[in-house]
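To assess whether ligand presence alters the predicted conformation, the chain was also submitted together with flavin-adenine dinucleotide. Input:
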Amino acid sequence: MTDPNGKSLTIIGAGLAGALLATLLAQRGWSIDVYEKRGDPRIKGYVGGRSINLALAERGRNALRQADADDAVMAQAVMMRGRMVHFADGRLQLQRYGRDDSEVIWSVHRGDLNITLLELAERAGARLHFDRRLDRVDFDARIARFRDDRSDESFEAGFRALVGADGAGSALRAAMNAQSPLGERTEFLDHSYKELEIPPADDGGFRIEPNALHIWPRGRYMCIALPNDEKTFTVTLFLPNEGDPSFATLKTTADARALFERDFADAVPLIPELDQDWERNPPGLLATLYLDRWRLDGRAVLLGDAAHAMVPFHGQGMNCAFEDCVALARRLGDGDDLASAFAAFEAERKPNASAIQQMALENYLEMRDRVDDPDFLLQRELERKLQERHPERFVPHYTMVTFMLIPYAVALERSDIQREILVRATQGLDSLDGVDWTAVDAEVTARLQPLQDAP
Ligand code: FAD
């Protein structure tokens, strides 16, 4: 049993957020126990098998730096400079994310990242308990019950307070909700995803440009591919659940292959095991989770996907979860009692989580339907020009979310204003020649205050 009064916490889930939070707190002298339902990935290999990768951006890197984890993670990361758009007619176009290579995102392997963070957590003194699935919680007696899925045995552990880093299907959230309703609502997207793989080329290198996030935008659906440091790419097909084409109409591997040959023709020769991958990997659901409350007084708090799962189209779920970890560690270090620290954490992070949830939903439309659209490309061109003319005021939406640390809510508010300016200024134009620069400059100055990044 952990000390009921001292600096001790019990974290549920040793995934990305759980492992990082354990490291941050253990490094600051906290006594940390982490319970994870799966086996130790350092012994058994990461469950999930193949190379599933994630885009790491500045918010995530900033959190990793605070845990001294950035160097170890970056040693295996692959730089992505921008979107490599694969047009339907076979043309390719690299759309840079930022101004130069100081503004890029990084593809990291989920399993390797998790293992790196677990090792750091253990080295910092956190106690990791694998094969322990949270099953039930008695919040009054402060006792949590865990099961070992291999033997079906039960274990009990006392706690001072629980932190739920157990992902979108959080068992701790369910237990808290049963104790005192959290106002939970899940909105499923009517699209799902399936993962496929591009293996290395015969000479052991990458088969396509490695330093890009590849996108095949096709209106109502799309494919993306992110590089892995072992020279593979993880391909993800995002497709509606209903309609044509959809997961409902692709009943056989032959149907899937026919869709790929028609709409993603240049990808087909890159995915030699398309049929096997299609059969092996079930479609994954996509949803946004909304909660009115993330905490139960000083006894439990949620973060990461357990608090605010989002659709993956801004590549920010993990980055946001990592920011949560930094914020909670900071609040816990303020010396307040746990209830006050959890309340301050929720007040700080909840509006920002809602903002990135909304931006992630909006970005799906942009990725699948807009990146090959002339209006959109003209607006991007104007965006770059306005950034040059007003570097302090007009900061592109993607830059604010991806390369800065300003609160997501601020990025959302400014992005909405900027979108209005871009749309209005380019209406009816097919080049920037006809832009009324005097009017646009005046609007930028009037509506956008100079922006400073968060410390
Ligand atoms: P998780 O990573 O889900 O970890 C939860 C952990 O808790 C797991 O280890 C699980 O085994 C454990 N657990 C679950 N239940 C229990 C229990 N009862 N008892 C004990 N342990 C339990 N984010 C990005 O930033 N960039 C991206 O490019 C990106 N791409 C994505 C692509 C897809 C297709 C998807 C679905 C998501 C993507 N995300 C991305 C989001 C990202 O994966 C999540 O936001 C991130 O994993 C959240 O971390 P977490 O630690 O909160 O939850």
